[in-house]
Batch of 2 targets.
Target 1
Amino acid sequence: MDHGKTDRRVTRTRHLLREALMSLMREQRYDSITVQNILDRADIGRSTFYSHYRDKEELLISGLDDIIHSLILTLENPGVQPDQHKLLSTEPLFKHAQDEFQLHKAIMGGHGINLMVQKIQKHLGRHIEDELRSWLKEDEAPAIPIPLMGHYVASVVLSLLRWWFDNNKPHSPAQMDAIFQQLVMPGILESMRPKG
Amino acid sequence: MDHGKTDRRVTRTRHLLREALMSLMREQRYDSITVQNILDRADIGRSTFYSHYRDKEELLISGLDDIIHSLILTLENPGVQPDQHKLLSTEPLFKHAQDEFQLHKAIMGGHGINLMVQKIQKHLGRHIEDELRSWLKEDEAPAIPIPLMGHYVASVVLSLLRWWFDNNKPHSPAQMDAIFQQLVMPGILESMRPKG
DNA sequence: TCAATACTGAACACTGTGTTCGGAAATATT
DNA sequence: AATATTTCCGAACACAGTGTTCAGTATTGA
């Protein structure tokens, strides 16, 4: 009935591989990591690897999709009621990044990791677009294209996150969110007024 | 006396290699370009390549440093008098990008090209920091760290540039600069007031 | 116990890297 | 023009990493 054990086994192997890659990414840049490195650390055979993943990049993506998903959820459901003066709360993101420091560092640090950043940026951008659109009354059109604003906000979030890491987290998540709001909201509010 | 010919010859070879790389980057991502590809396109021998550059990345950087330099100059000397309501004019940048479209596309498009973006961002960030500091009266301290603001502004500039490319340049350079000002300046001005 | 499924690891072909070196070609010097 | 110097050429080589194959082993489920 519950043939979960077989599946768990498969999952376990994949899990080991992901963990090995993540672990290695904390020590060296993604580009310089070898499939053999991963194999050694995970203690997994070569052919086993290739029976699960087409190549290194597929492994990377598979591991990162989970993280992205949880990040997106974190941002989209901040557990706070909507606020006309707050586009989105980035505090949960910074908090998440603080808790899972190593992981985020691995993500932000690497070179071939930009897929990741692009992906987050895309999701986040879309989410922000929706949020912005909901602010508009019908037949209103903002001075700046909504998709551009989404792109803008998403890139700022990630840019602040990167700065925060590169400078060893000199502020608390709440402070970082406050900075974000302070930098971004005035321009957004200004631009959302149809005839400024 | 004028032994320029020898130097020109060397320069010519290097130039051919750079051009070949740039040309290839317009067609495929940097990562997938082979040294042999470059050699073939430049019609240069293998050992000659390695007598000039340590590896592919060094060639990339050598070619890009020039571009970065000219971009930085463009931004730092916009030929416009300083303006208390304008942190920097990005119009020259967008204009430059329009004129040298292929090149910029190659720069923004690639994968391993992030060195480039990082470099520009660093220079630009520093320049903006200086500009911001000049706005402050002595013993004033802004609510948000100056370096963070520099990082923020630089990342927005590059982010807008990228959006502009990805969406086939739907606006004029002047319009893009206007959008930049509109999004960024309110938050900056707000944050520069020492006690808001 | 038997069959199915998942893992192993050695061997292999292949692609790309960076080095070496004898000789050719271009350039500079006299 | 003859010679010396510098630069370039390209084949050959050793090396590292990729992805595949396959016969054999270990695990699991009935």
Note: The interface with chain B takes residues 111-112, 114, 143-145, 147-149, 151-152, 155-156, 159-160, 163, 167, 170, 179, 182-191 of chain A (CB under 8 Å).
Target 2
Amino acid sequence: MDKYAKAAKRKTLSAQPQAREKSATVQQDRAKQDAAQQHRAELVRNGIVRAILEHRLHPGTKLGEDDLGNIYGVSRTLVRLALQTLAREGIVIMKKNRGAFVAQPSIAQTREVFEARRLIEPAIAARATQRATPAFAKALNAHLIEESASLAGHDEQASIRLSGDFHLLVAQMSGHSVFQTMLSELITRSSLSILMYKSSREHLCGVDHHREIADAIISGNGVRAGGLMVHHLDEIEHGLELERSSNPSKNLEHILAAR
Amino acid sequence: MDKYAKAAKRKTLSAQPQAREKSATVQQDRAKQDAAQQHRAELVRNGIVRAILEHRLHPGTKLGEDDLGNIYGVSRTLVRLALQTLAREGIVIMKKNRGAFVAQPSIAQTREVFEARRLIEPAIAARATQRATPAFAKALNAHLIEESASLAGHDEQASIRLSGDFHLLVAQMSGHSVFQTMLSELITRSSLSILMYKSSREHLCGVDHHREIADAIISGNGVRAGGLMVHHLDEIEHGLELERSSNPSKNLEHILAAR
DNA sequence: ATCTGCCAAATTGCATGCAATCCTGTGCTT
DNA sequence: AAGCACAGGATTGCATGCAATTTGGCAGAT
């Protein structure tokens, strides 16, 4: 009998190799170049990250080892490996003898993450501008089309993920793997912060900013691209409710969360 | 009978909790705040990182799971966890079915690491300047004294490590945990790069630059601190032989290294 | 003497098992 | 009825065992 038969239980995570054709672009490229799917632990990790990026996994959610093992068809050893990695990236926190939970970034941490992005992303954009090729321009445009399509089609999950993927795509264009890795982590953390502090009047991410940034990059104006990037990030951060007193429910949730 | 008796075999790594009193400052603080020594895997990881920072472990060295397990007195499961983490940080590379090896950063990767440091460290220095307190100034001075002492005493290992710790100390002062984590990783990678590409006429790291930077920070001149930091990093990078043709032995070594 | 094919030893990849810890709910005390 | 103690079950932390892969070397062939 199949040991992992309970995989049918699948919950919100989904382990299937994404039959969806295009859309899975950047994320998969990263995974491939990262480790060539060397261990199956990466599979678990990527699944969790993806779920977070698509806002299917929420801050504070418990990530039980057995559950994940059943979902992905691997033993707890590998799940544990994945969780450990995620913990080091600040995406998950592990409480001793209690298990792993999706991180609940504090306000201070959120500010730090955005500060880091404001430092790194303009540099990335500038570099991408220098190295822009017609092929990249095409990829960028294709991405933007896909992004607005998902927005128009009210495909919430896809549009959230693609919004992050835009930044990753630019990082990829920059050809700087260190920045790329750093940004990848920052984006995932941003996604959690957005989930925690998103103001009710939402629509944080329009595709317009991305369009402008892409145009600046393609037209070779690196300084402008960097400036727009900073502005874009500022806008996102300001769309969050990061005043300590603002939304008591969210702060409560954070404060009361078992330590 | 003690299962891990073979620990006596200890090689270059050393697992003992460092009876040395002071000097171990920054590195240990980081470890503590990171995970409160939550798992013993951290112990393995920290040991390896420290060995790299002190240039006791060289690029390309094989890190056998059993060996490490014996040295640190843990099972392969935990060793594996530590190695996996290090691999993700780019400090170690894992070859499928072949094992883990200390990374051999390429010239391109080295340039990327230093580019990232030149971006991040001035920002860190500026932030540290803003947040400087008398206590911090004192810590900084104490560190510099220790650093020159180790230099005067020709304590190679300590002086190399302390040189890196200076940067980490500034990052700690900045109070920005994201930058701190990023820099920590970059410094370890730098250490490997230096080991690979150090020009024969060495003496890369005098304490003078550090002194100047510290003075700028303490005197509240953040811009100057940032500028000096960039200059310092430039100097280090230029002390490396990063021309593709320069040192054929090193390039050969890198090119021929089993893929 | 060099090359090729194959077997044994060593090593990795991963699942499982066991002890320790934590959670839950039941019954007892006040 | 409210509070407390404790037992049973679930979950984590870690070591070990087993299959698969690689390595190194030896025998035989050319």
Note: Chain A touches chain B through 29 residues (CB under 8 Å).
